[in-house]
């Protein structure tokens, strides 16, 4: 292994089967099998899940007048995805625990740093829901925060595309993929790798980011083994 402890940021869209807020069993199994393969190799894995396939706080502001309430709705969506992923992991033979920054004792454990580390010591994958537990912060920022707290070697941003491009590859067939970027280039070119708060936190804590396609079987193991796929973002 090139990396011994990683945080995987999974968007809700990676788990969803379409625009109707559904969950895709095939996608969950594909991702869960990759996570199990990496976990069995001895790598410590933490996973932060988004909720965009179900609800984004920013998308309901026309219905919900208070931004904080809208963001809390988004936090609840991440719990639904967290439960689905934990189930997928256990269905694929990988022991997992769901921890949340938002209290929901009948559904998941509270996120406590030492408890999370203890689960990892026992070979469990920890799935982290609820974002940071606060409105006005994205799950990307939650991922940067948890990766820093847990002493991870790298944050892996799992997407449906194979890296960061200079323009939208779905709209521009001539879009060029970057193999490597600096945090400053990401900020200056407004490349939308993550929100600015998350990027700044990674920069301040010396935490590299790898953006890669998680839906291609075996890619997670390739990234953890240090293979040159996706786009790597570092301080220099």
The tally of strands reads 11
Number of structural units classed as domains: 1
Beta-strand content bin: 15-25%
Structural class: alpha/beta
User: For the largest beta sheet, what order do the strands appear in spatially?
Assistant: 4-3-5-2-1-6-10-11-9
Q: Quick check: average pLDDT?
A: 93
Largest sheet descriptor: 9 strands, mixed
Q: Quaternary state, please? A: single chain
As for the CATH topology, it is: Carbamate kinase
Q: Quick one: overall form?
A: globular
The helix tally amounts to 8
Q: Mind telling me the CATH superfamily name?
A: Acetylglutamate kinase-like
Please tell me about this protein's structure.
The protein is α/β, with parallel strands linked by helices and 236 residues long. The chain has one domain: 3-Layer(aba) Sandwich (Carbamate kinase). The chain is built from 8 helices and 11 strands. The strands form 2 sheets. The protein has a 9-stranded mixed sheet, with helices on both faces. Strands 7-8 form a two-stranded antiparallel sheet. Helix 2 (25-40) crosses helix 3 and helix 5 runs parallel beside helix 7. The longest helix is centred in the middle third of the chain and has 25 residues, at 67-91. It is globular and about 50 Å long. The protein starts with a strand and ends with a strand.
């Amino acid at each position: 292994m090139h990396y011994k402890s990683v945080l995987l940021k999974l968007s809700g869209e990676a788990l969803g089967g379409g625009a109707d807020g559904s969950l895709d069993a095939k996608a969950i199994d594909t991702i869960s099998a990759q996570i199990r393969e990496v976990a069995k190799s001895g790598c410590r894995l933490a996973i932060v899940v988004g909720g965009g396939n179900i609800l984004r706080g920013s998308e309901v502001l026309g219905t919900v007048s208070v931004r904080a309430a809208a963001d809390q709705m988004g936090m609840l969506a991440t719990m639904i995805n967290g439960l689905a992923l934990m189930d997928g992991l256990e269905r694929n033979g990988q022991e997992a625990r769901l921890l949340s920054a938002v209290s929901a004792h009948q559904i998941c454990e509270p996120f406590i740093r030492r408890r999370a580390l203890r689960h990892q010591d026992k070979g469990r994958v920890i799935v982290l829901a609820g974002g940071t537990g606060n409105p006005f912060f994205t799950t990307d920022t939650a991922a940067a925060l948890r990766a820093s707290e847990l002493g991870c070697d790298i944050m892996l941003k799992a997407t449906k595309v194979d890296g960061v491009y200079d323009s939208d590859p779905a709209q521009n067939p001539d879009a060029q993929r970057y193999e490597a970027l600096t945090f400053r280039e990401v900020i200056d070119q407004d490349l939308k790798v993550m929100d600015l708060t998350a990027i700044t936190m990674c920069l301040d804590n010396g935490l590299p980011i790898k953006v890669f396609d998680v839906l291609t079987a075996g890619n997670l193991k390739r990234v953890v083994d240090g293979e040159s796929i996706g786009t790597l973002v570092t301080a220099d």
